[in-house]
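=== RUN LOG ===
request id: a7f3
mode: sequence -> structure
chains: 1
length: 199
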Amino acid sequence: MKRIMHLIAAGLLLTMAAQAQTVIKPAIGLNFTDYTKTSEGDAAAKVGYQVGGTVAFGKKFYVEPGIFYVGKSTKFSTTNSSISSIDANIKGIRVPLALGVNVLGSAATDVSLHVFGGPSAFFVTSTDNINKDQMNTTQWGLFAGAGIDFWKVFLDLSYEWSLTNIQKDVSQIEYGKTRTLFVTAGIRINLVDKDQTTK
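=== RESULT ===
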């Protein structure tokens, strides 16, 4: 994983050197998180949230690192306990690194479509109804998605596959890995590059 992150970082630097366009993208959104398996019950996604932002470097092709404060929530139901159901809440810092391409439209058009994907890291800061000491508090993932830009506003839809088990020890109850759908909206703040100042 470290080697992959180093390669992506090198790609980011090359992209920044080759293309001057930079877009700052503050954003908020909703997420829906489920588990890949539950050995003693059922899990159902509940509405979570994220707030943060990204910075996109590039034009047709771009690199977009970001940072978000994320709250994930999943309802866990079981018949083997006096408690029929609980809301398992996880909060933390998510750091995605997207590689994308603008497939329709351009900076000169009011509407454009883009697709993207890449790796992510999630650092758990707090939990409710889940023992944090029994969790892997650093979780790696991969995500893919698509989005639309309308003038200064954007809307992205992405799906993330965690590569890390939720629990350190899966010998008793096993929840598997998380799967999260993200819906994110925000504004685009274009920083003027040297080419644009002469137009």
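=== NOTES ===
Helices lie at 2-18, 194-197.
The chain has a mean pLDDT of 83.
=== END ===
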